[in-house]
Amino acid sequence: MAKHVHLIGVCGTAMASLAGMLRAQGHRVTGSDMAAYPPMSDQLRAMGIPIMEPYSEKNLDPRPDLVVVGNAISRGNPELERVLDERIPMTSMAALIHDEFLQDRESLVVCGTHGKTTTTSMLAWIYETAGIREQGLGIREDGTARWTPSFLIGGVAENFGTSFRVQEGTRPFILEGDEYDTAFFDKGPKFLHYFPDAAILTHVEFDHADIYTDLNAVKTAFKRMVNLIPRRGRLLAFDGSENVTECAAKAFCAVERYGFKEDSYWQAVDMKHEGVVTTWTLLRGGVEFAKLRLPMAGEHNALNATAAAALAAGQGIPVEAIVEALATFKSVKRRLEVRAEVAGVTVIDDFAHHPTAIRETLRALKSAYAGRRLWAVLEPRSNTLRRNVFERELVESLSLADEVVLAGVFKSDAIPVLERLEPEHVVDALNARQVPAVLCADADAIVAEITPRVRAGDVVAILSNGGFGGIYTKLPQALEKLPKAVVAGTLL
C-alpha cells in the first residue's frame, strides 16, 4: 500500500537514492534539508521530489505515515522533535532499505575506507553488461536477464545517470556499504543492516573521527561486517593492507585476496598507465583470467576494478562481460570528474575526504596529465579533515601538487579548538617544502587568487566532499572572462 514517506536530510547521497527508490515503488515522497547542492539535488528535482529548505516543523504537514531520519540529524532538529513529540513512526535509511528492498535478494556489498563508490558502480555496470549480453543471446524465453541488478550507490554512476535502481524479477542487489553510523538512535554502521551474501573490503584506515575514537574502533566495525557473511558467501579482501588482513582473519566464508602480491588469488600484473587509460592482466590462481582495460587514471582505480571483476567472476558473471564492462566504464560524478576546460585550463572535481584519497587522486592526475602544472584546491570539510589528527599526512599528500590553495575549515566552530585542523600549519609546512601554498577564506577568495595566476595547460583539482561555496561554477566562469591570448605560457 502506498504511503507518504518523509526523509529528513534528503540530500545525502544515500538518502536521495532511497527517496527515488521509494518513489519508484509508488509512495508519495517528500524531503527536507538545510543546504541542497548537486548532484543529488538535481537528481531529486528530476524525479519530482520536492526539497523543503530549511528544516521546519511545518515540513511535516500533512503528517507523513513514516519518517526516515538521516544520520546527520540530531536532537534539536525541529522536524525530529515533532516526530518524537507526536510519535510519528520513524526509521533509519539502512533499516528501511533492508526491510523494503533486500528481502529474498542476493546482497552484494562493497565496503572500505576508500573506493566504495567507484567499486560499487563498476560492479553494477559489470552486472548490467552481463544482463544486456544475456538478453542479446536470448537465453531466457521471457526476455528477462538473471544478471540485471538493482543497486544503491553513494554517488551518481555515469553509465546509468543515477545512483540507484530497483529491478523487479532479478535477485542481485549491489550496495555501497557505509561504515558511518546509521541514525541518532542507532550508532552502528549502516552496512550491518545489509547482511551481505558476498562482499568486497577495499581498505581499512582511521576515518570519521567524529564517531570513531581510534583505528581499533574502525576495525571492530569492519570485523562485525565480515562476521555477517554466511559460510556459503565470499569476501574479496585487498592484499595491501594489514588492517584488512586483520579484519578478514576470522571470516567464516571463503576469503579471496586481490591486489599485487604473488600469493593472492587475484593478482594484477603488467599494469600500464597511458594518459587516462590503464591496462593490466588479471591472474586468477596464478593463471591468466583476462586482459583488462579501464578508461580511468590511477592505480587505485585499477584495484577497484580488480575487486569488482573478482567478485563478479566468482558469482558466475562471464569473463567477456567483465572485460567489456570495464572497457566502457564512465566513472562516477565527482570522482576525477572534468567539470570544465576553459582557456586551456582543465578543472577537475574530486570527492576528497581523507589524506589517502587526496594522495591517490593527485597521483592519478600527475600520471594522466604528465608535464602539466597541477593545482590542489582543498576545502577541509569532512569530519576527519576538519580535525588535526591527520595534519602530517595531509601535508604529505598535498606535496604531490605543484600549487596548493587551502580554504578555511568548514564550520570550524563545530570542532573543539584542540582537535581542530589549523590550515595555517599546513600552508607553512608546504611552503617549507618548497611547495607554494596559500590560505584563502572562502571560494570567492580562492577564485580571485587563482584566476590571475593560472596559465594554459594547468590542471586545477578541486577537492571537497561538499558544495564548496559554488566554486565548481565560479572558477570556470571567471576563466571564461579571461582574454584568449596566451603569451609566454601565461594567460593575459
UniProtKB/TrEMBL annotation:
Pfam families: Mur_ligase, Mur_ligase_C, Mur_ligase_M. Residues 4-97 form the Mur ligase N-terminal catalytic domain. The keyword Cell division applies. Residues 334-466 form the Mur ligase C-terminal domain. Keywords: ATP-binding, Cell cycle, Cell division, Cell shape, Cell wall biogenesis/degradation, Ligase, Nucleotide-binding, Peptidoglycan synthesis. GO terms for biological process: cell division; cell wall organization; peptidoglycan biosynthetic process; regulation of cell shape. Its EC number is 6.3.2.8. InterPro entries: Mpl (IPR005757), Mur-like_cat_sf (IPR036565), Mur_ligase_C (IPR004101), Mur_ligase_C_dom_sf (IPR036615), Mur_ligase_cen (IPR013221), Mur_ligase_N (IPR000713), MurCDEF_pg_biosynth (IPR050061). One of its GO terms (molecular function) is ATP binding. Residues 110-312 form the Mur ligase central domain. Coiled coil: none annotated. It is an enzyme of class 6 (ligase). Gene3D superfamilies: Mur ligase, C-terminal domain, Mur-like, catalytic domain, NAD(P)-binding Rossmann-like Domain. PANTHER family: UDP-N-ACETYLMURAMATE--L-ALANINE LIGASE-RELATED (PTHR43445), UDP-N-ACETYLMURAMATE--L-ALANYL-GAMMA-D-GLUTAMYL-MESO-2,6-DIAMINOHEPTANDIOATE LIGASE (PTHR43445:SF5). This is UDP-N-acetylmuramate.
